[in-house]
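Proteins fold reproducibly. Consider a sample protein:
=====
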Amino acid sequence: MRMLESASRWLAMAGLVVLLGACGGGGGGGSDGANSPAPPESDDPTPPEDENHAPTASVQFPLSGSLTTGTDIPVRGTATDPDGDAITAVTVHGVLAETDDGFATWQVPNVPLQAGTNTLEGVVQDARGGVGRFSLTLEQVENPGPALHSPKGLALDTVSGEARLLVIDQVLDALFALDLSDGPTLGHRTILGQTGDGHGTNFLVPSQVVVDTAENRALVLDRGSIPGTGKVIAVDLATLARTELVSGFSFASSLALDTTNNRLLIGDSGTDRLLTVDLDNLAAGTTNNVSIASPVSIDVDPASPERALVVDTVVGIEALFEVDLAGKSKRRVATFNNPKAVRFDPAGGSELAVLASRENVFSDNLFSVNLGNGSTTLLSGLDEEDTVIGTGSRLTQISDMLFDPRDANRLWVADSSSRAVFVVNLGNGDRLALGSRLGSGPDFLAPAAVALLPNADARQPMVVVLDDILNDGSSEIYGVNLAPGDTFGDRVTLSGFDADNPNQVRGQGPRLLDARNLVADTANNRLLVADASANTVVAVDPESGDRSTLSGDDVGEGPTFDNIRALAVDVANNRVLVAQRGSLVAVDLDSGDRTLISTGNGSGETDIGTGPAIRSPISVALDARNNRLLVLLFDINDEELGGLISVDLSSGDRTVISDPATGSGNILRIPVSVALDAANNRALVLDSAFGFSIDQVPPSIVAVDLSSGDRSVVSGHDRGPDGEFDSGDDQLIGGGSPFNPTSTPADAAFDAEARILYVTDQSTGSLIAVDVDSGNRALVSGFGF
């Protein structure tokens, strides 16, 4: 969201551009100097005037260490010669680069890649035969498949011989299969069925799944859209055809399969009953068993199929029950604050269970429950003394869990808030999201805002990402190392909860409750965060992690904040510009005092500036050269609002630059971030997607001409001249990994020197580098997208 200031100085210090070492060049004959004899020793330390120093090349895109699903990739960069000699050639992987400025900048459009690790060797040569060499490493992998949005039910399928995890996604109305094989495809996702695919009965509100191995089918519990429409849908795992098996449930919420008696157990909150369905006699319908007000989870004792565990979440009960299915009776085992799911513990010989419950405001916990006396032991999560058991990201919205039959200490846990399936080690409580990722350190689960650190030194991460987990109650700030080498893509916690050291929270001060934007205040060596919930601008020290209020109700004078959304640091005037609902406010970086810059629509006596009101600002970018602020507007309830305006910082006047009625090209659908590309007199707008549908309009990066308002796609999906999705004239701009079909890009930060836009994707947990010249996309940290 912020264009990089003092970029060349920062790049030299932090090494964002891959400065690749050069070998010494000989004086003639085209020798690269690598095998040339050493020059004779001399007592004269003064080098000869005609000594030729080797030229050097810098690769700007892709970053060495990046990951791509493309079979080829453009490589571009710069070249210089310390002696001022002309550069005569740059080659990458044996391919001569293109240039129109004597190789000051150069590009090889399509360098072929093989599956796995690719080391690309490059050579740069000057007019006197001096030769420098460079290299970069890229990983070419398979596409991980559509991202999960709201994982619910889990089941293990081993029929095919290769174990895979079946996952219900309630938002996408789909049944997924997750790859469980070790290696780079771990966690890769395949859709086995989704509403509207033409394979039979559509899902409406799918919630649970079991595998009927004997019939090679998955049985999916669908709650239905209204009471009385709940059903069980059979999915043939060979043909993927879906058929309705049994229906008529009022509000079915849980499902279990008793393989010994070939029957289903179904919890129906609408009738407050635990029901059974005989799979050998479907015509007999359902049979009432016991009364359970809100049965959200069921598990059958594999050693004694007439015994089951049921979680009841109705207010005032909230307990785990043991059910005698033959005697149609139940017994309360233990009471919890907010129980969610239960499984018999295979290590406990039918005497232990593992139960998930929300016992505090920060995380869901996993408990071992003694089924004889109801005593509990915390296995993973936050205890009463606020000590976290286990490392890894916190579980915040557990929807289901399942034991790995290969390891009694391993539990798969679906967390709908984190949009992920976790692997939990019950021996030590450690939690790890299922999937392969680039870089080590805390995982991105919902990466939101991103910023660049212009004044970072070589030890400081160069990109900072704010991770904002829904229902978590706080946000964390991570630093990402993008210097080439073994630590490329690694993430460290700069402020907030540290998943790798969960009992050593980094930094003190106010928690970030609803962080919306993140920028770098380089002059003061700090980050600034807009907190919409507290209506404050929070300063974060990246060294200590400490957080303090720069401006808010209790700090600074002037008009109060109202639903603040976006920030831009104005270094020349020692202020940060804050866009909020209806107005633009300047905040003094020393005192925190607030001054209105622009407000209203020009019709009121207290209005400042003329032009359209600043309704629903979502992102801003400072155009210091023209003394204006670019403000991106978007309102989900007003399709005509999505557009870009400018605010004159002297008068407060507001002018439309581009909107549905101004400028040509694809209309912005869900614009979320804007950055200034001053060199090309354009704004780069990240046009996102909701992630709610596999068939959604895909995301794109749109260039907006600041003179005409015309819009053109520079990366991602171009909807074509008619502006409609999937109408036959669409095209994908840029190679490499396409944006995920269920992605939700959240923010972008522009490195103007390297011409790379860094994009965060909340659905996939990715940090993506986009080459704004070619449109190519590559992963630089986090999960594959």
In short: Residues 7-14 form the longest helix (8 residues). Residues 7-34+52-140 form a domain with the Immunoglobulin-like fold (CATH 2.60.40.10). The helical segments are 7-14. The longest strand covers residues 116-126.
